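Please check this.
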Amino acid sequence: MADKRILVVDDEEHIVELIKFNLEKNGYGVITADNGRDAFIIAKEQQPDLILLDLMLPGMDGLDVCKEIRRDSAISTMPIIMITAKGEELDKILGLELGADDYITKPFSVRELIARVKAILRRTTVKYEDNGFKFGEITIDFEKHEVRRDGEKVDLTLKEFELLEILIKNKGRVMTRDFLLDKIWGYEYVGETRTVDVHVRHLRQKIEKDDKNPVYIQTIRGIGYKFNYGEDYEE
């Protein structure tokens, strides 16, 4: 754990000190910034393992920082937890749509914050041994584009496989329908988000034990989907 570094971005000094103290107490290295522009530069230069990003920042706010990080190929997969004093559903949805991995609202308990940090870092340090991945009774070979269930081959179309792969490799992160549509089908499908829903339905029928009550591919209402596997916050 000691090799994990976290960038804490907040313009309230007492909040930064509180978070820094407790993260270091749990064995994490901590970098800090008090504005969005510096946060983006530090993220580029120092490549932290996770960013705790306040929404309300002077100049470049947290949403803009998140947007710029997701646009930059060198750091686009960097995990981000949004922190804000606002509790409105709209802010949560907007943060998730821009690519935040999680969202915590002030005031928060230190225990909850640390648990969420640990959960995000667990997700993003998944090892894909031999270019494969296993969950439940499903085994995936990304190189061979092969999926097996209890040893039996599961026939997926190319798009179904690509959809499953991008969800797994962004484990725990909410993927919007528009993002999935663009990454897998391309610009000519812009606006046809029903295409994503149809493929998700077919994919669930092939890999879920009960596709009507899916465990692995979860719907985030009004936003999109995420791959869920061992997503609890408890140790």
